[in-house]
Amino acid sequence: MRSLPRVATVVVALSVLCLAVVALAAGAPPPSPICEVCGTDTINGATEPGTLDIHVDESGDSQWVAQVPVNETAAAHYQNDERALATTVNDSRNRYHAVGDDAQNVTATIEDQTVHVEYTVPNVATQVRDGWVLEYFYAGDSPVRYELVAERVSIHLPDGYAVTNRPAAGSIEDGTLTWVSGESADDENAAGDDFHSRTYVTYAQSGLTNTAASWIAAAVTFGPVVLEHTVLAGVVPVVMVGFAAVSTSTVGAGRSQELTGRSRRVGAVGRTGCVALCRRLGVHHSRRTLTLLGLAVVGVLAGASWLLGFLFEALLVGTFGLSVVLFLPFGHALARGERSAWLYGVACLLAPLGAVAALAPFPSAGTIFVLSLFVFLPAAGGAAVLGYALSLVGREIALDGNRKQREKQQRQTSTNG
């Protein structure tokens, strides 16, 4: 019967999570088709979804060319009635299309049973020094999702330019990126049709300097929103881990005083385990050795998660695990009275922000709330508890070393006396 409250708590928590997810999903708009006129249910008489080619020029503007095959009857009708063709093209434009009013100089023609729709979209790419970033499809912190709809979508860069990043689900060949419908429907952010809602392209002319410039362009373009969301979503991890760091710096009522009570028991047990492990490995239980061993364990766990396909879990294990491990040298340095001890404390605080920054920006404030409550809170809580325990181990190892050093000095003094 005692387990009933726990079960009820879990059920309530899961219910709240489900309601939050449903609310977020309900508030999101329908997917936005990349190609406005593609698909078999857009242009009357269409027989295939069609294709879209986006040609980017050296000024960052673009020319979009959509081609949709139609049946003979529709082709004959459009050839004889250009107004009907213009009407069906205008009617096919979805309310939630990706381009919207950005499309300029829209023209529609029919040739060889294929409807050709061309239009220009200015300012799809931004230049920073010698690097470029095409951020037109980067939804950022909006709830926008994309739908490929077309059988193929290709982005053609200016002559002499090469792609310097790896957009999700896209293939790269000779300055052209291509997405083909159905090739990666497992992507959660692609709305089931292979085009990620955070797609961006960095490109530059050949050369390491130009490549670096394109990455700088991406950092300048997306940096502000990523920083803002990292700060908002990082409040919970910083507060939780910060509480453990403050507790670590005050335990024992001073930097070098002895631990007492339960703190000393935890530290002593941990120190005994560390000494035994290091003896088995044939190494000395120094602060550097124990820290490297801890980092190795975290690296193995994160790497295994990554190889098994649990990328999100690998990110959490790597960053929060790093924070936990750094508490050991933090406690050790405090016990030895080192002035640089605060550096370890700052590192413990900043490490979890790596996961937050890697996930940012988030689609909405609701996403930040859900992740903070159901992901970052338990992860930071676990890191705080384990980190504090490791800090006690580090302090006990340092204090034990101090005691042995004092005993050695006393023996030497007695011998000399």
From TrEMBL:
UniProt keyword annotations, A-Z: Membrane, Transmembrane, Transmembrane helix
Name the UniProt record assigns to this protein: Uncharacterized protein
Transmembrane feature ranges: 231-254, 289-308, 314-334, 341-362, 368-394
Organism listed in the record: Natrialba chahannaoensis JCM 10990
